[in-house]
Automatic annotation (TrEMBL):
Catalyzes the formation of phosphoribosylamine from phosphoribosylpyrophosphate (PRPP) and glutamine. It is an enzyme of class 2 (transferase). The gene is purF. The active site is at C12. One of its GO terms (molecular function) is magnesium ion binding. The keyword Glycosyltransferase applies. In the C-terminal section; belongs to the purine/pyrimidine phosphoribosyltransferase family. It catalyses: 5-phospho-beta-D-ribosylamine + L-glutamate + diphosphate = 5-phospho-alpha-D-ribose 1-diphosphate + L-glutamine + H2O. This is Amidophosphoribosyltransferase. Gene3D superfamilies: 3.40.50.2020, Glutamine Phosphoribosylpyrophosphate, subunit 1, domain 1. Its cofactor is [4Fe-4S] cluster; Mg(2+).
Length: 473
């Protein structure tokens, strides 16, 4: 499958809007803007103030929704979700938002992230009689809410959220309100906007642009927002901890036109490329980036080094999402279907190939091979992030340490494996200082767990990696 070609994946993206006559339609457009965060499933739950109505399915946003289906769930408030199905986790039951009905009212939840104490909470809840219908850790939150002994829903939700550990950006929809919550470390991105009198929430600000909404601010770690027809009320379910936004949001996941914590993603990636050029000296004729997430860093590297930037690799945007590759030969062919070298740009040239990260090394090896087959005399691979040596427990499908090439090989060994003439990574300090720099000396906190093995939260003994969690019953 094409996942073999790009083995680093986000868990999902979320979008919500309250107080707009076309809330459901706007949620569709918002999810479309977030499609890069999840391509295996999509869903919307809306409210007309009387009932919650759900529509979800497996596939891309444009495949799941039609105008007729959208009209059938029309409402003035809605939350949506796009999902990346991790290994063993496909199935309509795990597509969000998850909708729960009870005699005391319905609720729907969209969640981006991964709970490091999900197994512990699930075991505790099952001993109390809970029966889980999905393998998603999102369902844990609904059970905690319903089992809370507090009098009001807001108190129940805040109590339940305070028990969660790990990364979670959540939208909760009830008939009469929408609720927003971000984990105390702020590991996942979440932004608040306005569209006229309507409030909008999204994983990335690019979703605001597509519907014409105005960015208001980032949702704060530990914050609990209550949005009703009366307006927005900001409360807290937990004290904020040290800010630890996922660094890979800037390096790879987010769209370049999005802003995270006031930092434009494209500008941050350009600074990473410039810093990379400052840290190394390579004699070369041309700089090229691996489309799409590495283009900004490649431009920055070119500007700083003085080596001209050229479009040496072209991405084929019409490769089928479900293309099957049952053999090694066809996997190699799959790379050629997705990426094509521009022969006249690289032939006879010493090429610097800028990429954002290396996970297993298979992608880099195949791209280096493509460039050399196209006539490049040298291929120097430079990476705009440090080596990924540790798994991510917070919602990114980074494999176990045993599968990470940097966890088991020296840089020289990695260079030999991918067939490059040289291999260089950006330093941790260089990455952090240049991502967070909106003006000299300023920075924001980052999660560096996959690079350093040091995590901002406690990791429980029974914590399940994101790509394995849906195998656990």
């Amino acid at each position: 499958m094409l996942a073999e070609i790009r083995s680093l994946n986000e868990e999902c993206g979320i979008f919500g809007i309250w107080g707009h006559a076309n809330a459901t339609q706007l949620t569709y457009y918002g999810l479309h803007a977030l499609q890069h965060r999840g391509q295996e499933g999509a869903g919307i739950v809306s409210t007309d103030k009387n009932y919650l109505k759900a529509l979800k399915g497996e596939g891309m946003v444009s495949e799941v929704f039609t105008p007729e289906k959208i009209d059938a769930i029309a409402g003035t408030g809605a939350i949506g979700h796009v999902r990346y199905a991790t290994a063993g986790g496909s199935g309509i039951e795990n597509v969000q938002p998850l909708l729960f009905n009870s005699t005391t009212g319905s609720l729907a939840i969209s969640h981006n992230g991964n709970l490091v104490n999900a197994n512990s909470l699930k075991s505790h809840l099952e001993r109390q009689g809970s029966i889980f219908q999905t393998t998603s850790d999102t369902e844990v939150l609904a059970h905690l809410i319903k089992r809370s002994g507090y009098a009001t829903f807001e108190e129940q939700a805040k109590n339940a959220l305070s028990l969660l550990k790990g990364a979670f950006a959540c939208l909760i929809l009830k008939e009469e309100a929408m609720y927003v919550a971000l984990d105390p470390n702020g590991l996942r991105p979440l932004s608040l906007g306005k569209l006229g009198d309507a409030w909008v929430v999204a994983s990335e600000t690019c979703a605001f642009d597509i519907i014409g909404a105005e960015f208001v601010r980032s949702v704060e770690p530990g914050e609990f927002l209550v949005i009703t027809d009366e307006g927005l009320r900001a409360e807290r379910f937990a004290y904020p901890q040290e800010r630890s936004i996922c660094t890979m949001e800037y390096v790879y996941f987010s769209r370049p036109d999005s802003d995270i914590d006031g930092i434009n993603v494209h500008a941050a990636r350009k600074r990473l490329g410039k810093q990379l050029a400052k840290e190394i000296q390579i004699d070369a004729d041309v700089v090229t980036g691996v489309p799409d997430s590495s283009i900004s860093a490649a431009i920055g590297f070119s500007e700083e080094s003085g080596i001209p930037y050229e479009l040496g690799l072209i991405k084929n945007r019409y490769v089928g999402r479900t293309f099957i590759q049952p053999s090694q030969d066809l996997r190699e062919q799959g790379v050629k279907m997705k990426l094509s070298p521009v022969r006249q740009v690289v032939k006879g040239k010493r090429v610097i190939m800028v990429d954002d990260s290396i996970v297993r090394g298979t992608t880099s090896r195949r791209i280096v091979k493509l460039l050399k087959e196209a006539g490049a005399t040298e291929v120097h691979v430079v990476i705009s992030s440090p080596p990924i040596k540790s798994p991510c427990f917070y919602g990114i499908d980074i494999s176990t340490s045993g599968e990470l090439i940097a966890a088991n090989n020296t840089i020289e060994e990695m260079r030999e494996i991918i067939g490059a003439d040289s291999l260089t990574f950006l330093s941790v300090d260089g990455m952090v200082q240049n991502i967070g720099r909106t003006d000299p000396g300023s920075s924001c906190g980052h999660c560096l767990g996959c690079f350093t093995g040091e995590y901002p939260t406690h990791i429980y003994p029974d914590t399940v990696l994101p790509h394995e969690k849906e195998k656990v019953k």
